[in-house]
Design brief:
Order of helices and strands of chain A: HEEEHEHHHEH
Largest interface: A-B, 17 and 21 residues
CATH architecture of the largest domain in chain B: 3-Layer(aba) Sandwich
Number of domains of chain B: 2
Number of strands of chain B: 19
Helix content of chain A: 40-55%
Radius of gyration of chain B: 23 Å
Shape of chain A: globular
Number of domains of chain A: 1
Order of helices and strands of chain B: EEEEEHEHEEEHEEEEEHHEEHEEHE
Number of strands of chain A: 5
Number of helices of chain A: 6
Strand content of chain B: 35-45%
Largest sheet of chain B: 7 strands, antiparallel
Strand order of the largest sheet of chain A: 2-3-4
Number of helices of chain B: 7
Oligomer: heterodimer
CATH topology of chain A: Outer Surface Protein A, domain 3
Strand order of the largest sheet of chain B: 3-4-5-9-8-7-6
Shape of chain B: elongated
Strand content of chain A: 15-25%
CATH topology of the largest domain in chain B: Protein Transport Mog1p, Chain A
Chain lengths: 144, 302
C-alpha cells in the first residue's frame, strides 16, 4: 500500500508576501489603527497597543477567574530614532523611502540603515503594530 | 553597470584581501575568511580564502566542489579553462576555473593560489538569468589582492577605513546598526577600533565625556584611566592613558587577573560623518604611542 505523501508546509510565499528583497523594500509599512501614540518629554513616542492572548491561554485564565473584562494593553516607548521612523510611517512611504531618509538624515551607511529599519519594522510587526502593504495592492486599489 | 567610472568603485578590504567593487555592491555576509557581496537584488560575488600548509592542489579542491554540487539536485558543475580576458588580471596566481548552472542562477569562478603568500582563494561570480557583465568581473579580478606587501594592512568595510600593523590579528568583530567594533591582538597587545553613530542622536542630551562615562559600556576596561578632554583634528575628543609599573609582581598580577596595566585611548567626534570614533589599546608592556597615533590618523569613515 502506498501512503499519500504529505505535502510539506511552506513557510515562505504566503499569499501577498514579498518574495524578493526588492519587493520587500517596495512595500509600504502601515500602522495598526488600534495603536494609540503619545509624545512624551524629549519627543520620544510611546505606543499603547492591545495585547493579543492565545485563545487557549485566555480560556484557562477565564476558568480560573484571572481574566478581567477590560482589554489588556501594553506600552512601548521608542527611542529617538525609533520615534522618527514611526513618524515617517504614513502609509505612503515605502520601506526604501524610509531607509533613504535615514541615510540622508543621519549620514548612515546604506546597509546599516537598511538593517536598522528592517529590524525595527520586524519588531513592530511581531507585536502587530505595523503591517506591510505590497505595491500590487496599491495598484489594485487604484484600478478599482 | 558603468565600468568606465572605475575610480567611483569602492574598496573592500578584509583580513588581508582587498579589491575594488562597484559602489552599489555591499557585503551581505562575512566571516574571518569569507565574504559575500550583493548588488541589492541578490548575491553577486562570493570569496573564501585560506592559508595553505604544504602543497596545494587545485584538483583536490575542484573535486570537493564537484562532490558538493552533486548533492544539489539540478546543479551541473564543470571545470573550464581560464578565459583569455582574465589571464592578464590573474597573472600572479596559479589558477583553475569552473562553472556551474542551476535553474535561474549560474556561477563562474576561479580557484587561485598565490605562491608568494601561500594562500588559496576561491572567487565565484553569480550570474542571474544569464546576465553576464564580464567587464565588471574583470575589473574586480584585476584589483583583487590576496595579501598585502606593506607593513600596514588595510581594512575597508561598510564605510569604515583603517590601517593596522600586519602583526595584529583580528580576534573579534561586530557590525551592528549603531556600533561597529574590530578587536585585534598581537600576543599580549590588544587594539580596539570602535565606531558609534549617529553621533547627533547619541550626543543630544550630553557631551562626549558624559556619554562615554554613562553609556559607553564597550570600553569598560579603560574606566579607571583618567580621561581628559582634548581636540583631535579640530574635532572634540577624549584622551587618556595609564602606565603600569614594569615590575615583575605587577606583570604577574596582570597575567593572573587578565587586567592589562598599560592602557591608551582616544575617542573623537567625527563631525563630518556624524560618527564617534575610538581607538583603544591595552598591553602588558608599555604601548607604542607612535603606532597608536598612526592607527588613529588612518582610521576614518567614508
Amino acid at each position: 500500500m502506498i501512503w499519500p505523501r504529505r505535502k510539506k508546509l511552506q513557510k515562505r510565499h504566503l499569499k501577498g508576501e514579498p518574495s524578493t528583497r526588492t519587493e520587500a523594500f517596495a512595500c509600504c509599512p502601515v500602522k495598526n489603527r488600534e495603536v494609540l501614540e503619545e509624545e512624551v518629554e524629549g519627543g520620544a513616542v510611546v505606543l499603547t497597543y492591545p495585547l493579543v492572548i492565545r485563545p487557549w491561554l485566555a480560556a484557562v485564565a477565564e476558568r480560573l477567574g484571572l481574566r478581567s473584562r477590560e482589554p489588556l494593553t501594553r506600552r512601548l516607548q521608542l527611542d529617538e530614532m525609533g520615534s522618527l521612523t514611526w513618524s515617517l510611517l504614513d502609509g505612503k512611504r515605502t520601506v526604501k523611502d524610509v531607509v533613504d531618509f535615514l541615510c540622508r538624515r543621519y549620514k548612515l551607511n546604506r546597509r546599516e540603515a537598511e538593517v536598522a529599519t528592517t529590524g525595527f519594522l520586524r519588531e513592530l510587526g511581531k507585536r502587530g503594530l505595523v503591517g506591510l502593504r505590497s505595491p500590487h495592492e496599491d495598484n489594485r486599489e487604484k484600478s478599482t | 553597470m558603468n565600468v568606465e567610472n572605475l575610480e567611483l568603485w569602492k574598496r573592500v578590504a578584509w583580513n588581508g584581501i582587498s579589491m575594488r567593487v562597484p559602489s552599489q555592491w555591499e557585503v551581505s555576509s562575512l566571516a574571518k575568511s569569507y565574504l559575500q557581496l550583493d548588488d541589492g537584488t541578490g548575491p553577486v560575488l562570493e570569496l573564501k580564502w585560506q592559508q595553505v600548509r604544504g602543497v596545494f592542489s587545485h584538483q583536490d579542491h575542484l573535486k570537493k566542489l564537484a562532490r558538493h554540487s552533486k548533492a544539489v539536485p539540478g546543479l551541473s558543475f564543470q571545470q573550464t579553462s581560464l578565459p583569455e580576458e582574465w589571464q592578464q588580471a590573474l597573472r600572479h596566481f596559479e589558477t583553475q576555473c569552473f562553472e556551474w548552472q542551476g535553474g535561474e542562477i549560474n556561477g563562474k569562478g576561479v580557484v587561485l593560489y598565490c605562491p608568494a603568500s601561500k594562500q588559496a582563494s576561491l572567487l565565484q561570480f553569480y550570474q542571474t538569468r544569464g546576465i553576464v557583465d564580464s567587464k565588471v568581473q574583470l575589473g574586480v579580478l584585476d584589483s583583487f589582492r590576496d595579501h598585502c606587501e606593506e607593513d600596514m594592512v588595510r581594512w575597508s568595510l561598510f564605510g569604515l577605513n583603517a590601517l593596522m600593523p600586519k602583526s595584529f590579528d583580528l580576534v573579534r568583530y561586530r557590525f551592528e546598526p549603531g556600533h561597529y567594533q574590530l578587536e585585534f591582538q598581537d600576543r599580549r597587545d590588544c587594539v580596539d577600533l570602535n565606531r558609534w553613530g549617529p553621533a547627533d542622536l547619541l550626543l543630544k542630551k550630553s557631551d562626549l565625556r558624559h556619554w562615554f562615562e554613562k553609556k559607553c559600556k564597550e570600553l569598560n576596561w579603560c574606566r579607571s584611566t583618567s580621561i581628559q578632554e582634548d581636540s583631535y583634528h579640530g574635532n572634540p575628543a577624549l584622551y587618556g592613558k595609564r602606565r603600569g609599573s614594569d615590575s615583575y609582581s605587577v606583570r604577574l598580577w596582570a597575567k593572573i587577573s587578565r587586567k592589562l596595566p598599560n592602557v591608551w585611548i582616544r575617542i573623537w567626534h567625527l563631525y563630518s560623518q556624524n560618527q564617534i570614533m575610538a581607538v583603544g589599546a591595552r598591553s602588558l608592556k608599555s604601548l607604542d604611542e607612535q603606532l597608536l597615533e598612526e592607527i588613529c590618523r588612518n582610521y576614518d569613515m567614508a
